[in-house]
Please model this.
Amino acid sequence: MFENLSERLGGVFDRLTKQGALSAEDVKAALREVRVALLEADVSLPVARDFVKAVEAKATGQAVTKSVTPGQQVVKIVHDALIDVLRGAEDPGVLKIDNPPAPILMVGLQGSGKTTTTAKLARRLKEREKKRVLMASLDTNRPAAMEQLAILGTQIGVDTLPIVKGESAVQIARRAKQQATLGGYDVYMLDTAGRLHIDEVLMDEVQAVRDVAKPRETLLVVDGLTGQDAVNVATEFDAKVGISGVVLTRMDGDGRGGAALSMRAVTGKPIRFVGLGEKMDALETFEAERIAGRILGMGDIVALVEKAQETLEAEQAERMMKRFQKGLFNMNDLKSQLEQMLKMGGMQGIMGMMPGMGKLSRQMDEAGFDDTVLRRQIALINSMTKKERANPDLLQASRKKRIAAGAGLEVSEVNKLLKMHRQMADMMKKMGKMGKGGMLKQAMKGMMGGKGAMPDMNDPKAMEEAAKALKSGIGMGGGLPGGLGGMNLPGGLSGLGFGKKK
Model:
């Protein structure tokens, strides 16, 4: 989402943190580079200017120049300033969905991903907050728009308002309100029509629907790839309709992320969610602390743990932990670990959320490492018999040949997989025995939401400890094919059997 900005700022702060003492000139020179980095990331000029001014005022004081680690102190000041820009004066808090049925109005231009976002948000409310949701499409202009929402509703198991041809948007909104009240729904979501540009007809229709529905939340969906134009669209919609928040879509693309940094400062409206892909679960809450952490390469441990909790059942985690503590780790265990990684967004997705792992993630990308490696390893395990999976020691030359042929791969790949399995089995044994109650147990407890497990994003020491734990393959307990850091990489990944892209 913010790769280029993150890389530029990372370079600036690397130089700062290597210096023992900082003069006011050092800070000024670094902040000039920060300003250029922000402008290159498509942050609007007034926002970039105000940001640098706010940081300079704090970063050139006595507290920094006399600090034990002045470079880190400046990074902390920039981190806090980023949070201020992203969040604004107050935190928007959770969506207002009290007094059922609570109406949520979805507005935006055509092509911004409004219908998909409506379905993603409905799924989130249903699964995370256990709400009964009704979706209604008010888009009478775009061909098959209503059918699209109905299909998405079937996919995610959320009810949609039956389609009646010939009704106006206002009539559909009234019918949705009535149906939601009679059907005992907690929330009903109105997906309004869009246009290719802002015009009077669009605004009149949205205003009429707003007056009928009296929404608790009016969310504007804008395409994050449009850069500063997204900020202009938000300003116009807010002036004419009044919005309570913004959802930025396509933030997994190669856009420069400046819209996200400018949005709150220019419009005064918070970004509530970001869309990070086409899948129905690819919607994240926009939390300033976590985004600032990602931009500055501190990672996002919270998101990583959330992903682990979503994809790993508590019972399964407990069962795995008991096996690992006894030193049991066969090919079935390894397969479930690899599948877990893919579910959590693959190598790149996980590394992007780990503190200090951003550079390693880029090196992997440049060297041609990707998730096909994980899929190849799963294919090899699938090619084994039940006995072989349960007892990898059975694998001699003839069996290896058969397994490799079954997966359409070379015998050398089987050897790499076996080496990785041995390393992980040894590490699991050590982790099961180490420390009070076993290090693995502590890691699992953290992953499944144990007390005190979450590091404070604002506490550099806590972040450093978390980074060390994660780099040594411990922080995720059962969630990662361990030892990402303990295998002497060109990035500590030698044991994972990586090969270059063919």
